Amino acid sequence: MLTEKEIEVLELRAKKLTQIEVSKKLGISQAAVSHFEKNALRKVKEAEETMQVARRLKLTK
Question: I want to staple 21 with a disulfide (CB 3.0 to 4.6 A). Which of 17, 32, 49, 59 is the partner?
Answer without folding.
Answer: 17
